[in-house]
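Standup notes
- HV: blocked on the assembly model, inputs below
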Amino acid sequence: MPVLTSPDIANKFKERWLAVFPEDQVLDSAPLDDSLTSLHWLQNFSIISTDPERPNAAGPGCPSSLQHHFLRRLGFPRTGTDSPSSPPAGDTAASGMSLHPGSPFTSGSDSQRFPNCAHPTPGYPQIPLQTSPQVEVDYKTNPKVKPPYSYASLICMAMQASKQPKVTLSTIYNWITENFCYYRHAEPSWQNSIRHNLSLNKCFKKVPRQKDEPGKGGFWQIDPQYADMFVNGIFKRRRMSANQYSNSSASQRPNKLVPSYDSIQDTCSFPGVGSKRKHLPSKSNKPVRATESPLLVMEANKMDLLKGDFDLASVFDDVLSGNCSTFEDLDINTALSSLGCEMEVSIHGRQHPAGLGRWCGAGDVMSPSQHISHHQSYGYLDLSAASMECSVSMGELHASQQHPLLRQQQLDQDQPLQGQHHLQHFDEPTSLFPEQSREAVLQPWEEIKEEAQAIPLTLDQGFGLYEGFFTEMPPWE
DNA sequence: GGATGTTTACAAATGG
DNA sequence: CCATTTGTAAACATCC
């Protein structure tokens, strides 16, 4: 298939875009600095607020930018309000705290990684309250609001934050109390719940302490078989019938790295994820839980996208109509360039050979809207990867730190796409910890000294957006 | 004795 | 309505 690089396509795309977003006209003519010609700024995308209302505190090194603009258009949430808590500036105690909801365990200094970007906040988790999206709940310092994470999620966060393949109960306690003020002041019964959860939840596996290891109690880890039940550290157990449970043991269940749109909708509703209770507890003395999550907002955005708030597909459809028969032919770089938004799609410095996006599916090639309306299991893989690349790995993360799908992408670049079932072929064991998933194959849960994996939420947001946008798969398939 | 771990029971919320 | 999930409480056992 020839890649359409025709300026006509680009112009038409631009026209359609501006028809939908006439306010972008100014962007079109805005002068661009060098930072806008690559996606280096996207290193910060998951960290720096993309909130348009927020001043561009990221500084000149962080584009203000068209790319942000474009990605916002694509439904990326405003990460400035994504995070579950927002410790005050200078609070350095949250070293293990999330930069992103759902991955409250991102480690490393982003200010070091992105020296040009002065973060207005360290990027601690914040969650908008349902009543006011502008109000952010600082779970790290606010003792009144119970974090909307299930205990399983909290345990998982703590485990990942520890950077160790196995953690002790006290480590879990400590992490939770350090990062969620509520539990510092709460009755210690929550610890009982933690213990109860560890014991009861099959996802958690106890690792007995070696006889020569001093200390109390054993270690706990996430059972690799169930690692894919956690997305960014958030427990996402699908409701399954007893029959399903009996017929789909973890060993039988094919590991799928990409949650379906359905599953994302059902279970990745971020703070709320894992905590299915969306209503306030009936007991009046119960703490208030924030119930609306960034991912919920994101889902809303996605739904807006699908419902016409912005019909990206229609834009592409219109652009493509009469010009090419398949969406995969679109050189989106050209299209985006027409908007002054240069998308440098590369994987670790390598230019993506085939443009940004590629549709994969088992049937005839369809237009995006057809993909959506027909609910086929198609995936716009490279666009997804690009989004992840944007948020995660632009020259910063090693392959071992990437989401498995990213590595899959790389593999696929070395091996051309085989067949049309690309999305369904993820033979690599799934793990909460990407590099550990690989380790688990050889030496399960061996001590990993490498810096903890950092999977900003936006990575999965990227998944969530694109996979959810364009694909739908039955759970656990 | 306190921390840890297991088990049981129950209630509330939720989804099919 | 029922099954499932989640949270909570409690009793009990084990270990350091």
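- HV (later): unblocked. DSSP finds 18 helices and 13 strands in chain A. The longest helix of chain A spans residues 7-20.
- Next: hand off to the docking folks.
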